[in-house]
Amino acid sequence: MSQQELTKTRVRERSIELQPPSDYKVIYLNDDKTTFEFVIDSLKTTFDYSEDPAVDKAMEISESGAGVVAVMPFEIAEQKGVEVLMRARNEGFPLEVRLEQSE
Predict the structure, then answer these.
(1) Could you say which DSSP state residue 65 is in?
(2) What pLDDT digit, counting tens, does each position of 80-89 carry?
(3) How far apart are CA 22 and CA 72, in angstroms?
(4) 54 vs 37: CA distance, rounded Å
(5) Which of 8, 48, 56, 103 is most buried, with most CB under 10 Å away?
(6) Residue 89 is part of which domain span?
(7) Residue 18: which pLDDT band, with cuts at 50, 70 and 90?
(8) What is the phi/psi pair of residue 62, to 5°?
(9) Partners of 68 in the beta sheet?
(10) Alpha helices, DSSP H only, in 22-73?
(11) Number of domains making up the chain
(12) Among candidates 25, 50, 30, 29, which has minimal Cα distance to 40?
């Protein structure tokens, strides 16, 4: 018998449980310098809000001091948060965006 005939391969099946990625809340923090218009525009352009919901969310942020603007997987939340922060800084606004793991 040749070496090739004596070799056997065993395949074991393993059950791997994949968990979906955790969702994160994107939170805008209110400040006295970032304009209402900037917040509304960023909600519309970055988070696909339409006009009325963007105005309502901007009001909530202004009145409450903070507001959750989106809940999404971490990588997407982080990317969108960075986009908003860069745009805010480029326009001279101190807007802060936080990410928090969703329950």
Answers:
(1) S
(2) 999 999 999 9
(3) 8
(4) 10
(5) 56
(6) 22-101
(7) confident
(8) -65, -45
(9) 27
(10) 36-47, 51-64
(11) 1
(12) 50
Whole-number Cα distances in Å, 11 to 14, 58, 103: 9, 57, 39
CATH of the domain at 46: 3.30.1390.10
Tokens of 83: 């986009």
User: Nearest Cα to 85, choosing from 31, 24, 49, 21?
Assistant: 31
pLDDT over threshold 90, residue 95: yes
Place of tokens 């928090």: 100
Q: Which pairs count as long-range contacts for 17-22, CB under 8 Å and 24+ apart, including other chains? A: 21/73, 21/74, 21/75, 22/73, 22/74, 22/101, 22/102
Q: Which residues contact 21 (CB under 8 A, 6 or more apart)?
A: 73, 74, 75
